[in-house]
Amino acid sequence: MIVRGEGLPLVLIPGIQGRWEWMVPTVEGLARRCRVASYSLCGERGTGCRLTEERGFDAHIDQLTRVLDEVGFERAVLCGVSYGGWIAVRYAARHPERVSALVVASSPGPRFRPDTRQRQHARFPYLLLPAFIVSTRRRLMPEIRTAVPDPDERRRIARRQTRHMLRHPISPGLMGRRIRLALQEDFVADASRVTAPTLLVTGERGLDRVVPPESTREYLSVIRGSTIVELPSTGHIGCITCANAWADLVVDFAQRVVANHDRLEHAGVEATRQDVLGV
After folding, report:
1. Which domain holds residue 121?
2. Structure pTM?
3. Strands 76-81 and 227-230
4. Tell me, what CATH number does 266's domain have?
5. Under a CB-based contact definition with an 8 Å cutoff, are residues 199 and 88 in contact?
6. Cα(232)–Cα(225) distance, rounded to whole angstroms?
7. Which residues on adjacent β-strands are paired with residue 38?
8. pLDDT confidence of residue 256
9. How far is CA 218 from CA 33, 60, 191, in A?
10. What are the backbone dihedrals phi and psi of residue 202, each rounded to the nearest 5 degrees, phi first?
11. Which residues 6+ apart lie within 8 Å of 267 measured at CB?
12. How many beta carbons lie within 10 A of that of residue 145, not counting itself?
């Protein structure tokens, strides 16, 4: 787990690869303007948390409660990226008292169902790992070239990310288990129960070739009052390739929401005081 920055508390939930270290640029971007905590998902080395078929997807929910308690966040903005969006949505539905705002970024929609290729990867994660790596690179390269047009900067980002990925490698078995457990859940029901102010963040249509923006957009019709913003020239990994711009979108929204909540709460307290005093 990592905690950086000062100010508004925010928890960054990583994607299906499970390691917060893959999101270092995102953590750094957010830490410029808020107090951000991030962590590795259940099952990863050092988490002390097992992802079992018996506990199912809710192991992620139990883990997030422990994270909030450990870092001392009574309430926080939850920001779930990709697979992490499902975790954030369920947590906001189950524990609204601990969620000041919700950000769902490039996440599969509540009605997501995998295609044939994705089902095969989930069923045979180790056997199909080489194909997964090749296909992921092919899908990400167009958006990387668009988001980072300067070749030198692109090489710098690639070197940095490669170091993080080699030091904290993925577990294909865990990734397969995560998606299998998630597909047993009803995220439509969860999303319909969310009361926290919610922002959806996507990349451009055609650039996100991992989770199409149309899938993330499904939350608009399920989470009451949710809004959506598209980060130009990005796709699925805009939180890394354009970390500062992405972080600014998230923090601007969160600060606006929390400030509005504080104003309403203060107004409510003042109204109650006046009623009591009879003024």
Report:
1. 2-277
2. 0.87
3. unpaired
4. 3.40.50.1820
5. no
6. 23
7. 2, 12
8. 94
9. 29, 23, 10
10. -130, 165
11. none
12. 13
**Contact (Cβ atoms closer than 8 angstroms) between residue 148 and residue 238:** no
- Compute how many other C-beta atoms are within 10 angstroms of the C-beta atom of residue 2: 16
The C-alpha atoms of residue 88 and residue 60 are separated, in whole angstroms, by 9
Q: Tokens representing 147?
A: 């988001």
Residue 21 Ramachandran class (φ > 0 left, ψ -120 to 50 alpha, else beta): alpha
Tokens found for residue 107: 């996440």
Using DSSP bridges, classify how beta strands 2-4 and 227-230 pair: parallel, antiparallel or unpaired.
unpaired
Instruction: Give the β-pairing of 198-202 and 227-230.
Output: parallel
Q: 29 Cβ partners below 8 Å, 6+ apart?
A: 239, 243, 244, 246, 247, 248
Residues in the chain: 279
> Given CA atoms 62, 63, 69, 74 in this order, what sign does their dihedral have?
negative
For residue 269, report the phi and psi dihedrals to the nearest 5 degrees.
Answer: -65, -45
User: Strand, helix or coil at 81?
Assistant: strand
Give the pLDDT confidence of 187-204 residue by residue, as tens digits: 999 999 999 999 999 999
CA 150 to chain centre: 27
Query: In the Cβ-directed half-sphere of 182, how many Cα atoms lie within 13 Å?
Result: 29
201 forms beta bridges with 105, 229
Domain count along the chain? 1
Q: Is the dihedral of CA 176, 190, 20, 214 positive or negative?
A: positive
Q: Which two tokens stand for residue 133?
A: 């790596």
Residues 81-95 pLDDT 10s: 999 999 999 999 999
* Closest C-alpha to 114, from 19, 217, 183: 183
| Pairwise CA distance, residues 110 & 107, whole Å | 9
* Side-chain half-sphere CA neighbours of 30 within 13 A: 29
Return the pLDDT at 136. Answer: 66
Hunting for tokens 């299906």 — which residue is that?
16
